Amino acid sequence: MTTPVLSVRHLSKSFGGLQAVSDVSFDLAAGELLALIGPNGAGKTTCFNMLNGQLKADSGEVKLNGESILGLSPRRIWRKGVGRTFQITATYASMTVRENVQMALISNARQTWNLWSRASALHVNRANDLLELVGMADQAERAAAILAYGDLKRLELAIALAHDPKLLLMDEPTAGMAPRERVRLMQLTAGIVKDQGISVLFTEHDMDVVFAHAHRIMVLNRGELIASGSVDEIRNDARVQEVYLGGGRLFEEKGKGHG
Amino acid sequence: MADRMLVLDNVNAYYGKAHILHDLSFSIGKGEVVALLGRNGAGKTTTMRSIMQLVRPASGTVSFEGTDITRWPTHKVARAGLGYVPEERRIFADLSVMENLEVGRQPHRDGYPDWTVEHMFELFPNLSERRGNRGKQLSGGEQQMLTIARTLMGNPKLLLLDEPSEGIAPVIVEQMAETLLEIKAKGLTVLLSEQNLHFARIVADRAVIIESGTAVFDGSFEELESQQEIRDQYLSV
Amino acid sequence: MSFYFAQFLTGLASASSLFLVACGLSLIFGVTRIVNFAHGSFYMLGAYLAYTLVQYVPGSIVGFWGSVIAAALVVGLIGAIIEVVMLRRIYNAPELYQLVATFGIVLIVQDAVLWIFGAEDKLGPRAPGLDGIVRIFGEPIPQYDLLLVALGPAVLGALWLLLNRTRWGVLVRAATLDREMVASLGVNQSWLFTTVFFLGSFLAGLGGALQVPRVSINLLMDLSIIAEAFVVVVIGGMGSIPGAFVAALLIGELNAFGVLVLPQATIVLAFVVMAVVLVIRPYGLFGKQETAAHAAGQVEAPIRPASPLKRTIALALLALLLVLPFLMGEFALVLATDILIFALFAASLHFIMGNSGMVSFGHAAYFALGCYGAAFLVKYFGGSMEMALVAGPLFAGLGALVFGWFCVRLSGVYMAMLTLAAAQIVWSTAFQWQELTGGDDGLLGIWPSDWARSKTAFYYLSLALCGGGILLLRRMIFSPFGYALRGGRDNPNRTESIGIDLRAQQWAAFVIAGVFAGIAGGVYVFSKGSIFPDEAAIPRSVDALVMVLLGGVQTLSGPIVGAGVFRLLEDEISRLDYWRAILGGIIVGIVIIAPEGIAGFIKRIAVKAGLEREGETAA
């Protein structure tokens, strides 16, 4: 076995007596799309924020390609090769689409202290390539503020890919999108993952998206990992059905749709 | 349609300078549950906000029970009997469950159920156990129930629900569907914006699909079932 | 020991009035999200009104307390009227505009009080029935002070009951959290806001009225109490009433004991405490992170290099400036020099405020430090003008380095308050450290080198330094550094998540803005030949803000236009009586009528006329 891209051991965090995440351990292999699901308040976001550096863990270990990254600031973790997208898109509204990507490229080249050059003239070709990759090249000159939501999500993906990350953390990548757009975005992501060998850890509420695209699924409940396995294993896990998926009408109807 | 309770007639609305609603027209009959479907950015939330006059329509009219309510102040619209449950829940995080309900309390209207705090706790048993807790201590699903309960405390005639199932665990969405069917049985009219077609189909009588701020479909779910093209274009599962 | 206890009680007594003012401010901020600069004016009005009413009922206990309550009620009513007539129109404006607009009210009230009550200080009578003293551990304590000591907790308790045990209170607390949602639930917000404003103003008026037997009443009361009240509210946490109480006690005691240790520097002490509290707890003792307002502001369009038309206009302007000495007399040249200096000052503020989203309410500090830095070099080291013009900006940059370290840890309203505090430290130091700064008498006789002594030569010197500074600032806005700041303004999380150390960039920007304000200050001191502490005072900081607003925050050429218009305007109206009220009215008018500023207004017209490309506007 090669070393996993991301290796998490005994990760724990509590907020004033409430155990938000307790003793979570898992590995993420190169090129793997791993989904983290669970009810609201199960600790998914807490878990994510510890991985990306926004939150300090109480205990545990997080290694990226064998190197510990726990406790580093978000920007250090980014420099180690971790990209992220946000649940609610976070882009620069007062910049053009291309400038949004250029900012990540400028930062990657450590040029943010340059007081003299014209920012919008730097890394133009590379920015165009990234926009081409996510299918946004034709909108490069538009202001990010006027993009449709699905386009913003794609722009975020381009920004997250700008520094050739080894690992992408995507917090509810398809939240707030229409079903068809969800499928498109996840197909796009899956394709990029495959071509570039990037690993992805994502949280998601839309089970259609999870079941269709995840290579493996982990289920979090009250801060603990209660199940981990393939799509079919999770779908048929009695405990997961009880705390999260439910077994009632919603999925019967859905079953019909799939048949 | 004799009993048209809420009528949108050629409504145009802007957000900043972006033209969101284009000549949007549809209506809801008394006692009906209508699902407003469409992709994100199609204008569902703006439609809800335009009805509440949180967004002022640039042209066109919104009328409720035959009265033109366009450009009324929002609180007056609410007092006329429109109850709005926004997306992202927006409960008062620092207020207790009881206080959240108190903010929503409005006088009773003849011919409509008179909701009391006790009714709310029957409808949402989870909230009963947490009546002294602050809003921010509730789980996402409980918060969603609280927003609905809070709005029902205003004894509305018509309920506007903006994406109630978004970001909620499937098991809770199921519970919510049951509750909505109970509310419907009490004679309330409901306009529900949704992206979850499964959920919408369970609770709604009729679907209105909007795209780029215009209604592109208005009919029953059976009709929608037969119109493969519309479904693929605007909904696609 | 007993002496210290007596001092402790004095601290508690003065804390009461401070609490009344601060809790009103906090209450109003909580619900309306407006930081009301004019709250100190309500306090002053309360004092003047009570003083006047008491004259009609000398020596009567009922008359005295009746006057106090009546004064507070009248002030409450005035507050409510101001809310209805004016503030209601700016609830959706950016917070900065609101702050500046309420400062406009400060100016209007100042002149109104001057007009009605006159310029001389007033000394009120003691409170009938409470004019004696009580001996505690042998120390004399005024009876009236004991009453005030009890009043603070009583008001706190009453407010708690009002907010937690009445429907009105629940609605107010709900509106503090989400105004739009409250309206959607059928609550008449306008009515709620007006009542809150009434109560807040009433409390401020009461605070002022209660001071009548204790202190002399004068026209400086408004700004001195508002600075302290800001400190209290920020230490306690914006919007928190228990926080305001604890912080008022803290500041009251700090003043009472600070006087014993550092009699000259109690203001500095209070601000130092505030800075320390904010660094440890960025939202104050009892405060919470501000929730993002649901009313979305106008998103700025992407910036683009100047169009050929704009370049032509800029070149024409430059050409005009170059030949100006041949067209105008000396008097006009002095005015033009002034405009250049203030254009650079405003541009340096715009650099951090417009492009970087860091609202500074104390930018005058760095302007003044630039002045003093230059002046010190000439006065104490016998330096030349050329050296002084380097020393000034360095001194200002050093100040910005120190204050900026604290300020960039905060954002929004808290940052604005802390920058104001920093400016107050500079001002009070300049005012009180007489040996160094000459205090109120200032430093005189700082003249340019021989070659620059003529008005024309000095004008060209100013044009080179200030014009060059403005161009440099503009260049930086388009650089990766400027873009990183812009990104930090648009979305701090995103900026950190692409590896940018935003705080470090902001700190550097703060220092750069300080240095350029210092250049303006250095040139200014040589143009006037003297420097006084006023250059660091609140009104000077507001001048800079008004210039930026006049020009338009979102317009790169705004500061230049703003400085020009402001200076010409000031030159016109400062000859009139009651010019402050006129200026205040103009400020209020701009915020209400042309919130995009003059340059923004021209841009809008130009876009309409098809002269300029329309940036696709934001959703």
Question: What is the secondary structure topology, with strand pairs?
Answer:
The complex is a heterotrimer of chains A (259), B (237) and C (619).
Chain A: E1 6-15, E2 18-28, E3 33-37, H1 44-51, E4 59-64, E5 67-68, H2 74-79, E6 82-85, H3 97-108, H4 124-133, H5 149-160, E7 167-171, H6 179-196, E8 199-203, H7 207-213, E9 216-221, E10 224-229, H8 231-235, H9 238-245, H10 249-258
Chain B: E1 4-15, E2 18-29, E3 33-37, H1 44-51, E4 59-64, E5 67-68, H2 74-79, E6 82-85, H3 97-104, H4 117-123, H5 125-129, H6 140-152, E7 158-162, H7 170-185, E8 189-194, H8 197-203, E9 206-211, E10 214-220, H9 221-226, H10 228-235
Parallel strand pairs in B: 3-8, 3-9, 6-7, 7-8
Antiparallel strand pairs in B: 1-2, 1-4, 4-5, 9-10
Helix pairs in contact in B: 3-6
Chain C: H1 2-32, H2 39-56, H3 61-85, H4 95-117, E1 133-136, E2 139-142, H5 143-165, H6 167-177, H7 179-184, H8 189-209, H9 221-236, H10 241-261, H11 266-280, H12 308-327, H13 330-353, H14 364-381, H15 385-407, H16 412-432, H17 434-437, E3 443-444, H18 455-478, H19 480-490, H20 492-497, H21 502-528, E4 530-531, H22 538-551, H23 558-573, H24 579-593, H25 597-608
Helix pairs in contact in C: 1-5, 1-6, 1-8, 1-9, 1-10, 2-3, 2-4, 2-8, 2-9, 3-8, 4-24, 5-6, 6-8, 9-10, 9-11, 9-16, 10-11, 11-16, 13-18, 13-21, 13-22, 13-23, 14-15, 14-16, 14-21, 15-16, 15-21, 18-21, 19-21, 22-23, 22-25
Strand fraction of chain B equals 25-35%
Separation, N- and C-terminal Cα atoms of chain C: 66 Å
Strand order of the largest sheet of chain B: 6-7-8-3-9-10
Distance between the termini of chain B: 32 Å
Q: Could you give a short account of the major beta sheet of chain C? A: 2 strands, antiparallel
CATH superfamily of chain B: P-loop containing nucleotide triphosphate hydrolases
- Domains of chain B (count): 1
The stretches of 5 or more residues of chain C where confidence is low (pLDDT under 50) are: 292-297, 614-619
Q: What characteristic shape of chain C results from the CA principal axes?
A: globular
- The run of helices and strands of chain B is EEEHEEHEHHHHEHEHEEHH
Rounded to the nearest angstrom, the radius of gyration of chain C is 25 Å
Largest interface: A-C, 39 and 35 residues
- Please give the largest β-sheet of chain B: 6 strands, mixed
